[in-house]
Amino acid sequence: MSKNDVFLPKDFPELKNDTFLRAARGEEPEHVPVWCMRQAGRYLPEFREIRAKKGFFDTCRSPEDCCELTLQPLRRFPFDASIIFSDILVIPQAMGMDVQMLTGKGPTFTDPLKEPEDLQRLKANVDVNKELDYVFKAITLTRHKIEGKVPLIGFTGAPWTLMSYMIEGGGSTTYSKAKRWLYRHPESSHMLLKMLTDVIVEYLLGQVAAGAQALQVFESHAGILGPVEFKEFSLPYLRDIARRVKDRLKEKGQDVPMIVFAKDAHYALEELSESHYEVVGLDWTIDPRSARERTGGKVSLQGNMDPCALYAPKELISDIVKKMLEGFGTRGYIANLGHGLYPDMDPENVAAFVDAVHQHSKLTVKKA
Ligand SMILES: O=C(O)CCc1c2[nH]c(c1CC(=O)O)Cc1[nH]c(c(CC(=O)O)c1CCC(=O)O)Cc1[nH]c(c(CC(=O)O)c1CCC(=O)O)Cc1[nH]c(c(CCC(=O)O)c1CC(=O)O)C2
């Protein structure tokens, strides 16, 4: 694919269910749209079957597999949106780092960044159309195969979350190696965050050109930072990403809703609602009513049922959903979990969650 080809208009099937896009833009559709983070995942036996055939990142590099995995949950549940199957760590790989997915250990970097000099090891000008074209191909293929049933969301990890993985070398409870950089090497930290931001902007634009109809930015490690560090090392880059992506899309007469999900960043809710994103995604530590008050109608909200509530009996799931809907209201609201589905979750309870959102919200919208 040449650089220009990815910007060619693509003849995609017409969208039949736009409830997610309307809610993202602050409207009140006929029912509250619902999807789940990690809806294409290990809790589905059909996902495990495909994944058993090859390594995790080889799966990510196969547009056909990504397409199939993205479509799997849609065959089971009446979700109102889909998210392309991929991973946030494809960006450090595109910048030249080796990342493996080890069973029982998760993402593991062969040679994490240790000192500021290590930044020289990273590719300076990443050609995303070359390095990440497999994601773009997966998006285009999926957008066709989804047949307009629901919109397709593209995504990326945010700069701080990716930086923390690149330094830590994998998952951690404290992320103290990565945080050490913030306190000891603030200038180099900003340099790395800026490098990541530049790649992320091109990556998100490439995803839209390939067919993504919305974009979610995962700042999954926001909660490791305090409010002061978040304002210095995360928020400016989140803002920069949204502004640059939107400006560039505008030049082409395009616009897609953007969602920021900064997990555990309840201390920054006001700032997040003024950071150029249409939607703020929430984890379960925030009360829906107070989230509405604090964001003052400036953005739509997405979330935020505790994923572990899916371990509850179905009747209780329905009650929890009803209360969540009462708290958020049905306008400018996208139902979701407060983080991704866990591998041991029962698909039947996922179905109960989706049905409860549709049923309760249909009644409320009708009454209004
Ligand atoms: O549990 C493990 O062994 C490693 C899991 C892991 C992965 N990337 C990772 C992590 C760290 C973590 O989530 O804590 C690293 C990773 N990937 C992702 C995030 C963002 C987040 O969840 O907050 C993160 C960071 C999570 C964190 O550190 O808190 C994003 C991701 N991974 C994935 C997707 C795609 C999708 O669900 O369609 C998505 C994005 C969209 C979404 O949430 O729906 C897919 C993915 N990545 C991964 C897996 C499991 C590995 C496998 O299939 O063999 C899977 C599938 C699944 O969750 O069952 C690998």
Automatic annotation (TrEMBL):
It catalyses: uroporphyrinogen I + 4 H(+) = coproporphyrinogen I + 4 CO2; uroporphyrinogen III + 4 H(+) = coproporphyrinogen III + 4 CO2. Its main location: cytoplasm. Its EC number is 4.1.1.37. GO terms for molecular function: uroporphyrinogen decarboxylase activity. It is found in: Cytoplasm. SUPFAM superfamilies: UROD/MetE-like. Catalyzes the sequential decarboxylation of the four acetate side chains of uroporphyrinogen to form coproporphyrinogen and participates in the fifth step in the heme biosynthetic pathway. Isomer I or isomer III of uroporphyrinogen may serve as substrate, but only coproporphyrinogen III can ultimately be converted to heme. In vitro also decarboxylates pentacarboxylate porphyrinogen I. Pathway: Porphyrin-containing compound metabolism; protoporphyrin-IX biosynthesis; coproporphyrinogen-III from 5-aminolevulinate: step 4/4. Gene3D superfamilies: 3.20.20.210. This is Uroporphyrinogen decarboxylase. GO terms for biological process: heme biosynthetic process. It holds the Pfam family URO-D. Residues 33-42, 153-169 form the Uroporphyrinogen decarboxylase (URO-D) domain. Keywords: Cytoplasm, Decarboxylase, Heme biosynthesis, Lyase, Porphyrin biosynthesis. It comes from the Eukaryota. InterPro entries: UROD/MetE-like_sf (IPR038071), Uroporphyrinogen_deCO2ase_HemE (IPR006361), Uroporphyrinogen_deCOase (IPR000257). GO terms for cellular component: cytosol. It comes from Crenichthys baileyi. Belongs to the uroporphyrinogen decarboxylase family. The lineage of its organism: Eukaryota, Metazoa, Chordata, Craniata, Vertebrata.
